[in-house]
Amino acid sequence: MKFFVDTADIAEIRDLAATGLLDGVTTNPSLIHKSGRKFLEVIEEICGVVDGPVSAEVVALDHETMMKEAAVLRKIAPNVCIKVPLTIDGLKTCKALTDDGVMVNVTLCFSANQALLAAKAGASFISPFVGRHDDNGFDGMQLIEDIRLIYDNYAFDTEILVASVRHPIHVLDSAKIGADVMTAPPAVIKALFNHVLTDKGIAGFMSDWAKTGQSIL
Ligand code: G3P
């Protein structure tokens, strides 16, 4: 499963990229607002740090203006992935862009039928929001299972990009279901490294090593 980080914070992106575990980045208008940076500048900077897909979202609601915004965004770098909302105009834009060889991430997916439409529109990625689904009393991971089943039934190439990931169990369940990608905030990715028994084990080994009086270097 590929790991994308869901942030526009360049320091966090650099930090995670240094682990070698980062396959891409997703942003959205709220994350750009949180960064306090200029949208085009921050996307260009992220594309310089990460080779994989960097999602940059259009903010227009109509197809024609979405296409104009996408034309600006795709010029930034070859790894820019245009993010469009799951609406009729969004999917028209998705079809036009993917037919032209541009990567597209279809966002704000909350049903398996919506995911089916995105795949038929040629989406490179579909982003079902599991956390927001759970928040509203639905089963986010059931949605991922349903999309996996449908995409496998018809051998769609669209990658399932699990978004709105809130905790490590979402990551574990995504991997068990066979999602292609998950995108999570930096804190959730960093939490994946942690285990209390790892910390306890290191403390024990360090304490016994000190008693030997030896050093490796
Ligand atoms: O980038 C889209 C998605 O990951 C947002 O997550 O936590 O705002 O629901 P969240």
From TrEMBL:
Name the PROSITE patterns for this protein.
TRANSALDOLASE_1 (PS01054)
Pfam families, per database record? TAL_FSA
Pathway note: Carbohydrate degradation; pentose phosphate pathway; D-glyceraldehyde 3-phosphate and beta-D-fructose 6-phosphate from D-ribose 5-phosphate and D-xylulose 5-phosphate (non-oxidative stage): step 2/3
Q: What does this protein do?
A: Transaldolase is important for the balance of metabolites in the pentose-phosphate pathway.
Q: Write out the catalysed reaction.
A: D-sedoheptulose 7-phosphate + D-glyceraldehyde 3-phosphate = D-erythrose 4-phosphate + beta-D-fructose 6-phosphate
Keyword Transferase belongs to the record: yes
Matching CDD domains: Transaldolase_FSA
User: What is the name listed in the Swiss-Prot or TrEMBL entry for this protein?
Assistant: Probable transaldolase
Top-level EC class: transferase
Q: Where is the active site?
A: K83 (schiff-base intermediate with substrate)
Q: Which UniProt keywords apply?
A: Cytoplasm, Pentose shunt, Schiff base, Transferase
| Entry annotated with the keyword Transferase | yes
Q: Could you tell me where this protein is found in the cell?
A: Cytoplasm
Where's it mainly located? Answer: cytoplasm
- Tell me what organism the protein belongs to: Sphingobium scionense
Q: Name one GO biological process term.
A: ketone catabolic process
The EC designation for this entry is 2.2.1.2
Q: Write out the GO MF terms.
A: aldehyde-lyase activity; transaldolase activity
Kindly give the HAMAP family that the UniProt entry links to this protein.
Transaldolase_3b (MF_00494)
User: Which Gene Ontology cellular component annotation is one that this UniProt entry carries?
Assistant: cytoplasm
Q: What superkingdom does the record give?
A: Bacteria
